[in-house]
Amino acid sequence: MSYSSPLLSRAGAAEHQGATFIDAAGVAWHYGDPLVEQRAAHNGTAIVDRSQRRVIAVAGPDAGEFLNNLLSQKLDTVPQGFSAGALDFDIKGHILHQMDLTLHEGTFYLDVPAGQFESLLDYLTKMIFWSKVTVKEADLALLTLLGSQKNSGLPIPASAVYTREVDWQGVPRTDIAVPRASLVDAVSELEEAGGRLVGLMAYTAERVRAREPELAADLDNKAIAHEVPQWIARGQSPAFVHLEKGCYRGQETVARVENLGRSPRVLVLLNLDGSAPSLPAIGDPVELGTRQVGRVGTIVHDFEWGPIALALVKRSALSNPQLHIGDVAASLDPDSVPSDEGPKAGRAAVDRLRGR
């Protein structure tokens, strides 16, 4: 049975039109004025209904160790309130599942796009063996606040089960999980305090600005973690992939790329020609001249920048900012090009052994 948010009954609510790989089914894409709605995230606080996502609760005395052995995030010793992203790989290091997670009162809550829920729940359930854990769906709905939530004094709804401040490269973001039965009341509380309900299009534009991919839309079945540079934990941010933890499926690929080389592709931000009669579709090839150098992912209109997109592009094409997707010119955002990480420790060791 397909999901339909109760907030779709609001005046002006419109779902995403047409098929899309973006996790958008069942919630409002906008409420009548999407570009103005996005502006609310920059001059106030925008409230986004992301209740199409589904939540898995993993609890029990072995929950942290259980998840630590399966996912890319270090979770065996994290404190209450810990929040981060995490990935699940296949044996070759290709990404199978992408999730946000929070530890609250001894339970790990993993929220994923609707299309990934069943397969992740099935995988976790099959991996329990003798671990003292329970794995089940949590009947929670996700709301996201974008903007100056802390400074505006906007209160957290009384029904909130947990909240998390998300460390990403966009406007300040707070995720709030509430019981599904309390979704409408929670939004009303936030609106009464000065927030504005906006559609998923506004969130998607901010997600693209933040270069935060959504697996089904922006990556493919060959994607590896290092193709999204900010997913690799460096410094204080836990990111999605912890580089100093025990073995998990797919870790060999992560370690090899980290220590010996670089990913062949990288996720970048593209500015598209707004005068084009039509925009590309997710999965269309990104080209340099007559040569295909990547694939385009999420495409969305931004209230300031016009049409923008995420794309997986070969590193060999990053020195040329002018690309195209069919007849649509695409300009590479220089700020999205990753900086050189310098010599790799593993490569240097190999060179020493070879006497170079």
Can you offer a commentary on this structure?
This protein is of the alpha+beta class. The chain has two domains: about 10-260, Probable tRNA modification gtpase trme, domain 1 (Gyrase A, domain 2, 2-Layer Sandwich), CATH 3.30.1360.120; about 265-335, Beta Barrel (Elongation Factor Tu (Ef-tu), domain 3), CATH 2.40.30.110. Helix content is about 20%, strand content about 30%. It has helices spanning about 35-45, 65-70, 115-125, 150, 185-190, 200-210, 215-220, 250-260, 345-355, and strands spanning about 45-50, 55-60, 85-90, 95-105, 105-110, 135-140, 140-145, 160-165, 175-180, 195-200, 265-270, 285-290, 290-300, 305-315, 320-325, 330. Strands 12-13-14-11-16-15 form a six-stranded antiparallel beta sheet. A five-stranded mixed beta sheet has the order 8-9-7-1-10. A five-stranded antiparallel beta sheet has the order 3-4-5-2-6. β4 and β5 form a beta hairpin. The N and C termini lie far apart (about 60 Å). About 45% of the residues are buried. The model is unreliable at about 345-355 (pLDDT under 50). InterPro entries: TrmE/GcvT-like (IPR027266), YgfZ/GCV_T_CS (IPR017703), YgfZ/GcvT (IPR045179). Keywords: Methyltransferase, Transferase, Transit peptide. It comes from Corynebacterium flavescens.
